[in-house]
Amino acid sequence: MAEDIPVRQHQDALFRQIEAYVPIRGRPIPIRPPLKEAFYRFPRHAFVSGYRRPGINWGEPVMSGDPGFLAGAYENRPLMYVDESGRTLEASSSEPAFIFHLAELLDVRPGQRVLEIGCGTGWLVALLSHLVGPEGHVTGVEINPHLHAQAARNLSAQSVTNATVLAGDGFGVCKNQSFDRLIMTASAFHLPHRLLTILESGGKAVIPIRNRGLAEEAHLLERVDDRLEARVTRLCKFVPMTGSSATGASVIHIDDDPVLNRLRSVPLSRTEMTFGQDNPGDMLRHALPLTACLSKTTPTFRAYALGPYGRGGLDIAVFGDPDSYGFGLADEARGSAAVWHKGIVSAYGTPHCASDLAEKVQRWIEAGRPSGFAFGLTITAGDAAPPEDHMMGVYREDRGDLAFWWYIRPPEQRI
Fold first, then answer.
1. Runs of H (alpha helix) within 111-233
2. Does the pLDDT value for residue 245 go beyond 60?
3. What's the CATH fold of domain 2-185?
């Protein structure tokens, strides 16, 4: 039985997958010896007391001591945390191979000060504490009291002395501190102005950014003067951040769009847009790269949750069930909207948005169907001047007090 296999064999099997990891887009990165040492020093199962395997159809909770617990803890997949009663928490222990890839991108060095926001039960905090060594320090922040308490117990049990876990809401807990490295392990739509100053000059951050829609990218950002510049981009999918950096307007319910509400009665027309697929689930998967582009370049773009299932649930935000997700354009000035759902575009009001959507899809296809991986990003204060060093065109997106400047990287810069 799997439970009879020693922990070391489970670790070896998982680490082979970590070493062999290749991102969906971009280059693989070798795992350095210090991170490998940290992996074996801090076993994953010691930081997870119970979990569910994520999916549209949730499995039963698996608690420490249950048959299969150890084998599941060393699968290369995210594990949704559960409390003592088996209730699923909106937080996860992320897929190990991807997290190790991001940790290598972050390039943590001895003596550095590192911040993890959304530290869960503390596994990544422990791994990073090994990388910074006795002269460095890692601070973890966790908003969920249950997970924060577990993280504190876990780090104490593992004799980690150069790390601290704080209870609270993200950036607000560390108001007067600065760090050499920062990693967030949940995705955010809104980010605070504090993001521009929390890193030392030249400091690096890995931040999963949720767009309007389901597409997400994790960006390796470097502080340059008073702005952040994306050096590397990776496609990703994380659970959404809670608290002040919650996802905000990434997906709205279709009944809550005031433009569409004023126009929607009988559709003006219906046309097919299947992305060359017969199955709606496949259509959605092939459409997501398009939505990643439109969310950055088209202010009229909308991402919609449909039906009661799409109201406030974790599944629609994370998994994109094709029955409960749609997207389109809504232009109040033109009295026009177009909504794509399961291969059909429904036009409302005037036909402008339907025509505009069809034109944008064609241009996207001609450009090689670029995903979010093709985009670079500069983050500045909202009142800052646009960056001058991007020659391929810049698209501004206002997010609270910050301005996101998206630009399409030349193919040779997509690493």
1. 123-132, 145-157
2. yes
3. Rossmann fold (3.40.50)
Instruction: Find out whether 164 and 141 touch, Cβ atoms under 8 Å.
Output: no
The mean per-residue pLDDT over the stretch 209-219 comes to 93
Q: Verify whether residue 178 is a known catalytic residue.
A: no
Closest CA to 76 of 108, 40, 100, 106: 100
Question: For 255, which DSSP code?
Answer: G
Residues 6+ apart with CB under 8 A from 75: 14, 53
What are 45-90's pLDDT values in tens digits?
999 999 998 764 567 899 999 999 999 999 999 999 999 888 888 8
How far apart (Å, rounded) are the C-alpha atoms in residues 245 and 207? 12
Q: Which residue has the higher pLDDT, 37 or 175?
A: 37
- pLDDT at site 379: 97
- Alpha-carbon 247 to chain mean position: 10
Mean pLDDT of 186-214: 94
Neighbours of 357 (CB within 10 A): 26
Closest residue by Cα to residue 348 from 259, 251, 255: 259
Residues 6+ apart with CB under 8 A from 172: 192, 194, 244
Q: Which residue has the higher pLDDT, 60 or 95?
A: 95
**How far is the C-alpha of 253 from the C-alpha of 50, rounded, in Å?**
32
Q: Among 220, 196, 217, which residue's Cα sits nearest to residue 206? A: 220
Q: State pTM to two decimals.
A: 0.92
- Per-residue pLDDT tens digits for 219-228: 999 999 999 9
- Which of 131, 232, 112 is CA-nearest to residue 180? 112
- For the chain, domain boundaries: 2-185, 252-366
Distances (CA, A) of 140 to 98, 149, 220, 275: 19, 12, 19, 43
How many Å apart are CA 344 and CA 231, to the nearest integer? 37
* Cβ-contact 401, 313 below 8 angstroms: no
Burial of 70-87, coded b for 16+ CB within 10 Å and e otherwise, reads bbbbbbbbbbbbbeeeee
Strand 269-272 and strand 325-331: the pairing is unpaired
Q: Which of 94, 336, 346, 371 is catalytic?
A: 94
What tokens were used for 328? 């389109």
